[in-house]
Design goal:
PduO/GlcC-like_sf; PduO/GlcC-like; about 130 residues; Beta-Lactamase
Amino acid sequence: MALTLEDARNIISAAEAKATEIGQPMNIAVVDVGGNVISHVRMDGAWLGGIDISINKAFTSRAFDIQTKDLAENSQPNQQFYGIAASNNGRIMIFAGGIPLIRDGEVVGAIGVSGGSGNQDQDVAEAGVKAL
């Protein structure tokens, strides 16, 4: 079951609401099952550098069907994915804020959030996931 633009808008809306609640403007991206951007929003005042990061967090999460915070834990020296950040032409993000989107037990895309601390990015991404 494909992720639609309407789904992406609902996910982004919920994530924006959380970002507003915590007082941190964010970049929020939603990608489809192929890792392609469906929608992105840069909230007023969100970092310009976070645009690319949010998109790549979503891509990373979909590419490996893993939360980026979990990939981060496994990509440290002496861990199984050490060096993974250098793959995929540098698109791999290994910090919190990317989460696969799952519908009926199947990954249909991912959300990526950037603009705050890792915990803030993760909280906003989780709010978006709940909207699916």
